[in-house]
Amino acid sequence: MVNVAILGYGVVGSGVAEVIKKNSESISQRAGTDIKVKWILDIRDFPDSPDKDVLTKNADDVFNDNEVSIIVETIGGAKIAHEFTKRALMAGKSVVTSNKELVATHGPELLQLAKENGVSYLFEASVGGGIPIIRPLNQCLAANEINGITGILNGTTNYILTQMKREGKSFEAALKEAQQNGYAEQNPTADVEGHDACRKIAILSSIAYNEFVDCENIYTEGITKITVDDMKYADAIGGVIKLIAVSKKANGKIFARVSPAIVLNEHPLANVEDVFNAIVVNGDAVGDAMFYGRGAGKLPTASAVVADVIDIAKHPGSGTASVWERTQQNNILPIEDSTTKFLVRVTAKNKEDAKKDILSIFGEIQLVELHSKVKDNEFAFISCKNTESEFKTKLDKLESASDITVLNRIRIEE
Ligand code: HSE
């Protein structure tokens, strides 16, 4: 029998208790032993909970219980969850988590601590919700040099963008639904400003490139400035706007970025809708491999957490093999040096003059006009590939040298 304690009885924590109970028979068979939730720690009251017999508000109940060998941390955040994770690992208990903020921020130290104490620190649920991606990267694709990763890594923003495009819903209404469905973070700023996707690409990149990638160094832009009009222009060029997280090896450094981007309809990520996430991994031997599934929500995330619990129960004492080294210097290529194509939406008093100005500053461009013109003096153009710093210089020049107002600029993912 393996005894588990769950820290945090929120959406994911309660889902973990539910899955362990519901699938107890098949889980026992797969783990080769029974798995029981002995404690659930939460400071809140849950008088009607089906798990009230094992709920406690006293952390000592969990940490002083020698029968508990696996701690599931589903508190979230990097404060109390960090303290509890260190305490558990130092007490010789393995920890399983869905907490991407903690893994992305303190992963190197926590993996080291797990290794020193001969226990495991597993976090399959921290990226892509129910999609298996951490274990495939660590194990199934281990023979490859990973060239790059491109993904839709946040369910909330993908849900919002899909609802705005398909149903014409407002950003606020779609966000509210994502919150009601249990997809969004407690503070949804982390979702809509791209920080959640940033932490996830940092985790995947750290595994893929065998060195710690600090999310603080990754350029991150959210979806709050994306409008339905932007989506119409994306549609006009045969694409769709997604929050894209990307990382690649580039000249001895790592290029990583999170931002809204237009993906053309032929791109494998273009049809990934609603709460679904997808990750395309390019390895030198395998080529492209794509992983797809529900990226957020109670049971999909619990599915990944419980899989880690089963793994530890099945291989007790196997511990943590690989740790992440922090590099001395920033290993991320500055965003200014990366090359990108942009769709630029503009408005101008005199369109013909504006087009001449754009041509003279940007050189080769492609004009984009909507067939159903919403506003007469509005149009868009696609820049050719420039470094981001060249592009910014040209755009600043355009705005100061003409009567053009830039309404938005959106990267085009290739
Ligand atoms: N808020 C996250 C998302 C939850 O929407 O993807 C899963 O990590």
Short description:
With 414 residues, this protein is of the alpha/beta class.
Structure description:
The structure is a single chain. By secondary structure, the chain is of the alpha/beta class. The protein has three domains: 2-129 and 299-315, Rossmann fold (3-Layer(aba) Sandwich), CATH 3.40.50.720; 134-294, Dihydrodipicolinate Reductase, domain 2 (2-Layer Sandwich); 336-412, Alpha-Beta Plaits. It is 37% helix and 26% strand. The chain contains 14 helices and 17 strands. The protein has helices at 11-22, 24-31, 59-63, 80-90, 100-116, 134-140, 155-167, 171-180, 189-192, 195-209, 228-236, 298-314, 351-362, 388-401, and strands at residues 2-7, 35-41, 55-56, 68-73, 94-97, 121-122, 146-152, 219-220, 239-250, 253-264, 276-283, 287-294, 339-348, 365-368, 378-383, 386-387, 404-413. Strands 7, 8, 9, 10, 11, 12, 13, 14, 15, 16 and 17 form an eleven-stranded mixed β-sheet that branches. Strands 3-2-1-4-5-6 form a six-stranded parallel β-sheet, sandwiched between helices. Helix 5 (100-116) links the parallel strand 5 and strand 6. Helix 4 packs parallel to helix 5 and helix 5 (100-116) packs parallel to helix 10. The termini are far apart. The model has no long low-confidence stretch (mean pLDDT 96). The chain binds L-homoserine (HSE). L-homoserine binds at residues 129, 154-156, 183-185, 191, 196, 295-296. It is an enzyme of class 1 (oxidoreductase). Belongs to the homoserine dehydrogenase family.
